[in-house]
Design brief:
Layout (H helix, E strand, L loop, with lengths): L8 H18 L8 E5 L12 E4 L9 E5 L10 H18 L7 H9 L2 E2 L6 E2 L1 H14 L13 H4 L10 E5 L6 E5 H7 L3 E2 L3 E2 L1 E4 L1
Parallel strand pairs: 1-3
Antiparallel strand pairs: 2-3, 4-5, 6-7, 6-10, 8-9
Helix pairs in contact: 1-2, 1-4, 2-3, 2-4
């Protein structure tokens, strides 16, 4: 009996992640049990080129890894599920090996092990990944998501309000100088981002 189509985007993402879990177990890097996955803009905002993001569980009050996949991906409707699955796979690798591992040796080992290809900072689905994901995506059913256009004027087409000043917040690693930007909303809800090498970063307002 075939599983029923997933009714929400989050249910679809979690179903695909659960079906991918054995791929990580075979590589000796199982997925964490405390994991949340959602469609949403990354911490660098809608103008960022980042298509996905994984927050370390140390940033979460209840120690969950948090994965976000942006809602305005540009692939056609037919290709979008594989594109989303590929981005999800990349972020799941971060959760499996630990965010501080960055895109280095351990990340590369697991990413290639599940069939991702290309540069490790911007992986693409290789033939093995696509072959493994096709039956999973078929069972998952259509992705219940319509591409969100972020090029239309935000002030007239959404409930977002203009702010009187910039909300970008700079976080810096005191050890190596690695810097990242986030917003007050994400800082309050998830904490400061982590330096890939040295962990917790200090907050500097800009």
């Amino acid at each position: 009996m075939e599983p029923p189509p997933q009714q929400t985007r989050e249910a679809w993402l979690n179903y695909v992640a659960q079906r991918m879990a054995p791929m990580f177990e075979r590589l000796g890097s199982p997925l964490p049990t405390q994991l949340r996955i959602a469609i949403g803009f990354t911490s660098s905002g809608r103008r960022s080129r980042h298509v996905g993001e994984c927050w370390d569980n140390q940033c979460s009050e209840d120690r969950h890894f948090e994965i976000f996949i942006r809602p305005d991906l540009s692939e056609s409707k037919g290709l979008m599920p594989m594109q989303v699955a590929s981005i999800l796979g990349h972020e799941l690798v971060h959760a499996a090996v630990g965010v501080p591992a960055g895109h280095r040796k351990e990340f590369r080992r697991v990413a290639r092990g599940i069939g991702l290809a290309g540069q490790m900072s911007a992986t693409t689905p290789g033939p093995e990944f696509e072959e493994a994901l096709r039956p999973i995506l078929q069972d998952a059913g259509p992705l219940p998501h319509g591409r969100l256009s972020s090029t239309i004027g935000v002030s007239s087409h959404s409930s977002r309000r203009k702010r009187p000043h910039s909300s970008r917040i700079k976080c810096v690693c005191d050890t190596c100088g690695y810097a990242a930007h986030t917003t007050r909303r994400w800082l309050n809800s998830a904490g400061a981002p982590l330096c890939p090498k040295h962990g917790q970063m200090n907050v500097q307002r800009i």
